[in-house]
Amino acid sequence: MTDKTFKLNTGQNIPALGLGTWQSEPGKVKAAVAHALKSGYKLVDGAYCYANEDEAFAAGVKREDIFVVTKVWATYNTRVELGLDKSLKSLGLDYVDLFLVHWPLLMNPEGNDDKFPKLPDGSRDIIRTHNHVDTWKLMEKLVATGKTRAIGVSNYSKRYLEQLLPEATIVPAVNQIENHPSLPQQEIVDLCKEKGIHIMAYSPLGSTGGPVMQAEPVVKIAEKHGVAPSTVLLSYHIARGNTVLAKSVTPDRIKTNMLLIDLDAEDQKALKDYSDSLTKEGKLQRYVYPPFGIDFGFPDKS
Ligand SMILES: NC(=O)C1=CN([C@@H]2O[C@H](COP(=O)(O)OP(=O)(O)OC[C@H]3O[C@@H](n4cnc5c(N)ncnc54)[C@H](OP(=O)(O)O)[C@@H]3O)[C@@H](O)[C@H]2O)C=CC1
Ligand SMILES: O=C[C@H](O)[C@@H](O)[C@@H](O)[C@H](O)C(=O)O
């Protein structure tokens, strides 16, 4: 099923599965990406902020066969073309397939660090007067440059999308969000489906160490099909019509993660019941919530 693709609102085909590169240590990324692309992965997800983009594309594959995603980091949200140029230089490419706004806020472009400027009290140096819609207006201008085939957002809540969409000339092609049965974010997924915005699910295993792999219904479904719990968690997104990003630097896991299965109606119901019970009990689990000190409008955090 690794050849499966979905259609973006730009007309591009986007692969159903991608390799994530966040927290992949420099030095290990090159081998992981090369192994993944050789094994049949068609999408690599990177970001300026990951500081490993110089390893995130492998020679030996045809550029046009691979879907490359990168993101503008929050210190560049008033300078998105510069951010994209820097990423392209590191990647050694002249275009990416998809360029995303990594987070909808501005960190001080003139602060004391290129990526994580801090105030004297140690908190992140954020320009609170910045409107995320202004960043989107700059993103829209990038399409004509040919340096990216599509533009999209990441970490957008329903509230933020509802602020953006009435102002947008170009509807984002993608919203990349944390998504797994312990954080289904159904209200965002439903709005995106309605507006033709494709979901890319990040941290499908629950990020570092893959804690969601231990959730009881996930283990049960894995046993039923004779597959790894990771396979159930990745396949969950294919059943939902979403692209999924799995990060690994371990060669056999990179291969294991290529196995995607059809979850049947009973499996999907069991996972939905699990999500619903966590929602009811107020036990949803968000694993990626950096200390920006900003209300992004996620119901579990707002
Ligand atoms: N837009 C955004 O803000 C964000 C985007 N992302 C993107 O999504 C990608 C995926 O999310 P990420 O947070 O990295 O986490 P994942 O949910 O993909 O989990 C990665 C962890 O699971 C381990 N792992 C991977 N496969 C297996 C397996 N088959 N069996 C057991 N363990 C496994 C990895 O270990 P090991 O590598 O040691 O094998 C690593 O510790 C990121 O890399 C990034 O590209 C992620 C977070 C935020
Ligand atoms: O993409 C992954 C995450 O969003 C990551 O970029 C952030 O969590 C960043 O490390 C931060 O601390 O703000």
Poorly predicted ranges? none
Q: Fill in the CATH topology.
A: TIM Barrel
Strand line-up of the largest beta sheet: 3-4-5-6-7-8-9-10
Annotated CATH homologous superfamily: NADP-dependent oxidoreductase domain
DSSP helical segment count: 9
Quaternary structure type: single chain
- The CATH architecture would be Alpha-Beta Barrel
CATH class: Alpha Beta
Domain tally: 1
Chain-averaged pLDDT: 97
In angstroms, what is the radius of gyration?
18 Å
Tell me roughly what share of residues is in helical segments: 25-40%
Report the sheet with the most strands, covering strand number, pairing sense and barrel closure.
Answer: 8 strands, parallel, barrel
Active site: 50 (proton donor)
Keywords: Oxidoreductase
Binding site for substrate: 102
InterPro entries: AKR, Aldo/ket_reductase_CS, NAD(P)_OxRdtase_dom_sf, NADP_OxRdtase_dom
